[in-house]
Specification:
D-Maltodextrin-Binding Protein, domain 2, 13 helices, alpha/beta, Tripartite-type tricarboxylate transporter, receptor component TctC, globular, six-stranded mixed beta sheet, Bug_dom1, five-stranded mixed beta sheet
Length: 315
């Protein structure tokens, strides 16, 4: 009898880790989940992340919320996630710069392997835009025009990835930029007032003047052509530069595969909603889903290419 009791105890000990693991996964999330958006509210990543949080609340019955933590070009919010437990209770909604250029520049108090991707879900609809009556309609025509005329560029700052991509494209295509300025907001007014001849911005910021016909696009810095301007070739088509400015969900390294899978399942369901599809249709945002090893590969490739872009900007 004692031998049987002992055997049963050993068997219980043998399976208990599996039981506890299954229970932990089944109970995720065990408490309210925080999605950290390291920017002020209102932009695309914030809106979509809120939809993902709403989906998690609806599916699991556990509250999930978005906390905006702007500062340091996204570093303040990323630091919050880097200091969290690897349990999926704190999830970062990160733009590419946080995992690439900030690390290369030495601005980040974390390393390239601090986080693991749950999935990449958004291409910001970055574009090069100009006034509708400008005498050029694509990058080659802009290059020809710039040989005899001064061209000024408006951008979001030298540390911003789209800015580096724009300057690299200009060099490749022979576009002479006579002057450039960084603006907090690059919108219709930047062009209308003559502060810049071309601007590197997002379609969200210039939708009104695109619809009115006051502004036109020269190219989009996106994986695919914009849904709102399918006739405009991407930067990759015109120059071969494939890097874009994406956003994805990231967790602390060491988070279990089961938790990441649950997060991915919820995020994908949210991305299929009518609200998200309408947002994509009206802004041109590229909304898709890349997870697992494919997402890691995107991050790794962009980590290397962004290093080259920074070296180009600093030479």
């Amino acid at each position: 009898m004692k031998k049987l009791t002992k055997l049963l105890s050993i068997a219980t000990l043998a399976v208990s880790p599996l039981m506890f693991s299954a229970t932990a996964v089944a109970e995720y999330p065990e408490r309210p989940v925080k999605f950290i958006v390291p920017w002020p509210p209102g932009d695309l990543e914030d809106i979509i992340t809120r939809m993902i949080a709403e989906e998690m609340t609806d599916v699991t019955g556990t509250p999930a919320s978005v906390i905006n933590k702007p500062g340091g070009g996204g570093i303040v919010g990323a630091l919050d996630v880097s200091q969290a437990r690897p349990d999926g209770q704190t999830v970062g909604s990160f733009v590419a710069d946080i995992l690439t250029t900030h690390i290369h520049s030495g601005n980040a108090p974390y390393s390239a392997d601090t986080f693991e991707p749950v999935g990449i879900f958004l291409d910001y609809p970055f574009v090069l835009a100009t006034k509708a009556d400008a005498p050029y309609n694509n990058l080659q025509e802009l290059a020809d025009y710039s040989q005899k005329n001064d061209v000024s560029l408006g951008h979001f700052g030298y540390q911003a990835l789209p800015t580096a991509i724009t300057f690299k494209a200009a060099e490749m295509e022979g576009i002479k930029i006579a002057s450039d300025s960084a603006f907090d907001v690059n919108n219709c007014a930047t062009l209308a007032t003559g502060d810049a001849d071309i601007i590197n911005t997002t379609t969200q910021l210039i939708l009104s003047c695109l619809k009115s016909g006051e502004v036109k696009l020269l190219t989009s810095i996106t994986r695919d052509r914009l849904s709102i301007a399918p006739e405009i070739p991407t930067l990759a088509e015109q120059t071969g530069i494939t890097q874009t400015t994406w956003n994805g969900l990231f967790v602390k390294k060491g988070t279990s595969d089961e938790v990441k899978a649950k997060l991915a399942e919820i995020a994908q369901a949210a991305l299929k909603s009518d609200k998200v599809q309408d947002l994509s249709a009206t802004t041109g945002a590229g909304i898709y889903w890349i997870e697992g090893d494919a997402a890691k590969e995107v991050v790794a490739n962009d980590f290397e290419s962004s290093k080259q872009l920074l070296e180009f900007m600093n030479k």
